[in-house]
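retry 2 of 3: previous attempt timed out while embedding LARABZUK. Reduced batch size to 1 and resubmitted. Inputs unchanged:
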Amino acid sequence: MGLLTYSPGRTRVKICGLKTSADVDSAVAAGVDAVGFVFYPPSVRAVSPNIAAQLISRLPVGVDAVGLVVNATDEQFAAIRAAASITLWQFHGDETPERCAQLAAGEPWMKAARVGTGFAFDDFSLQYGQANAFLLDALVEGYGGGGVPFDWQGIPQTWVSENAPRVVLSGGLNVHNVGEAIARLHPCAVDVSSGVEISRGVKDPALMAQFIQAVRAADAKTSSQ
Ligand SMILES: O=C(O)c1ccccc1NCC(=O)[C@H](O)[C@H](O)COP(=O)(O)O
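retry 2 succeeded.
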């Protein structure tokens, strides 16, 4: 169904920063809706376009292949698009709305909001109104993948109500806090990287399965209310 199919009571799940076929097979077996590939060389989770293409070939129909870039050049972006069948772009740097639209060229894309104190949610959603989704992440060094949550209480309830169908909640999620996040915000989807790793950049099959089970438990609780 893909990551951005909004269905209250069926929170979608993206697992980001996959680097091996074992990672991909475990995430698919756990029931993931999207897997993210980091095309940002400074990241320990970075993969090449050719490696990503090999990993994407293992995905069943319906699981999104998310291509994550940070201020990519035209050449870098063209190399990714030429090699890998990305179904959803994630712009996680300082890209303007115009730059995102130019690179995405009509394909689905989401913009990461790096949320620090006093973040202007209304300004962000107005500025990036063309995006298919907003990925709300914590403001961390190195642009993302920090493993720390931001202050969910700082998101205005009116903003959440208006935008929940295209919110992907991210930043420091794990098996212990994802249930609260879903109960509080009812996002279209949740995204996790550090929270399913046994060390930075090393995914754990058990943690991936437990994370998705925790999402399903939270959804069941929502549906019973
Ligand atoms: O994951 C990275 O290393 C990364 C590096 C630079 C920019 C973005 C990056 N990840 C983006 C993601 O979508 C992560 O899943 C998101 O930041 C949440 O990460 P975590 O807090 O570790 O769950």
